[in-house]
Amino acid sequence: MKKLALFLLLGSLVIADQKGVIESIDHQNKTITVNGSLIKVLPNTKIEEDSCWLAWDISKKFADLRVGDIVELDLFYSGDMLTASKIEIQCVRNRAY
Question: What is the C-alpha separation between 32 and 44, in angstroms, rounded?
């Protein structure tokens, strides 16, 4: 189930709190596909991993993203392309597979 909230901020469309699974990663173009949407990852995109056992998140880099990761995204449109301002890799305890 996708959770999606839309906000209008300073004339640009901001999509907040979208959750999904990384389906593919293009390392050359710095894009990921989540829920069938192609998403650009910029050098200043904040990437964190939710810690299951610590009180704080762990900073990550684009190279740390993996297909199958469950992520929560803060997105906005840059031109006609979805762009991530924040990616949080979710901690999943007791995965079924």
Answer: 15
